């Protein structure tokens, strides 16, 4: 994200493959200013709840799920995702297209304005992207536009983005991300982050809602913005309030008691299991995109040679029981993951299922070790984080330890570390094997590949291979859609068979719980991963 999108890590590298700039890593959820700000709401409308926390209302410093929820309501983008659709479509733009292989041109709709009445023009767009890059906040999403060389004003309604690498097929999908909100150049500083209080007061945004009242991470009240003409549509509910909860317990209770209309992020697996059986609420599932996986440190993991280390990785892949984790630990709120790109995403495949089996195969695992001259049991030092990736991580990794040791092929030293220390120590090569999670920035298969496996990738696992780098560059820059999907599948197969630098375990779903009288929830649970209040009504 990042701040990382809890429970999934979202910090990513947006330099295209060979560029591979190191992405910035997560920071703790924090932020200045928590007093109530704004004009006050009317107290009616729809009430939503979440346990996610807002980091910042300024897009230059916002790279987390809590901030994304607010950004989705108050900002417009050149391109955005219509409810129920994960294909970028014009929002503030009238149209966007590649005018040359390295120039992506967007023409704005005429007559656009911010909530404060100021005009939204090409100057606003150029300012927004230039500002994002200039500030380059360590908690912000500037890394997403690492392939952007410059932004030029063609005329009052037209901007041209010049890219460093030609034919970047992911660039249109990046415009609706947290790197893409358009801000008012007359109120946002060009070189520093605006405080939340000033964002609320200045109203230099132009999305479907304005913020009527703001008490950070306690209560945010929204009012429909009548001059929004974008793809999210006219809000079906004119006023929406968001309540923030410390844990899911009280959010669940308020839903059951009718004090809350809809809860989105995050319920525990036990919560979901019990709520599915409660006729006072309804539970909706949607594409999640979240990936949980184990990272192998190529330098410090067991094995005396690269070949032996690969054999250990393959043996682990053949031993872990993903369906047991999905059902036993996560009550089927997660599904087994056998590929590097989550199922449902164009280009997704399941090479690990073919290569290492859908269920544990002790004989295959033992053969990988024996063929490489490795005596069993292999000692594995496995680290996980007990808080950042959800409260069930302890149970998940206890189950993984049990599965590996039950094979007789491994002895697992399992340890946990709090998030701040975890981030520092794994970057210092302290962890030979460790837990990580990922929540995508946008719905494109490359968002699961380049950040993980390009040079200087954010995992800092010491994995880099020229053949994989070349394949990543090829898939990102292939303009033919069908050919690109085949390239994406091919690089996944190569990674799984010949490298296995990470081990995918589970893929998560989006889950929202609501009052049965609330309509529109399924429409916004799509692969764009944006929860839009505009479609909700009761």
Give a brief description.
The chain is about 30% helix and about 20% strand. By secondary structure, the protein is an alpha+beta fold.
What does this structure look like?
The structure is a single chain. The protein is an alpha+beta fold. The protein has 2 domains: 36-285 and 511-535, Periplasmic binding protein-like II (D-Maltodextrin-Binding Protein, domain 2, 3-Layer(aba) Sandwich); 291-508, Roll (Dipeptide-binding Protein, domain 3), CATH 3.10.105.10. Helices cover 28% and strands 20% of the residues. It contains 16 helices and 20 strands. It has helices at residues 65-74, 122-135, 171-174, 196-202, 248-257, 269-275, 306-317, 322-329, 351-356, 362-371, 393-406, 419-427, 450-453, 466-476, 481-498, 521-524; strands at residues 36-38, 46-50, 79-80, 89-90, 93-100, 103-108, 148-155, 158-163, 209-215, 219-224, 239-244, 262-264, 282-286, 291-296, 334-336, 378-384, 410-416, 433-438, 502-508, 510-514. The strands form 4 sheets. It has an 8-stranded mixed sheet, sandwiched between helices. Strand 9 and strand 10 (219-224) form a beta hairpin. Helix 7 packs antiparallel against helix 10 (362-371) and helix 14 packs antiparallel against helix 15. The longest helix has 18 residues, at 481-498. The chain starts with 35 loop residues before the first strand and ends in a 14-residue tail after the last helix. 57% of the residues are buried. Residues 1-34 have low confidence and may be disordered.
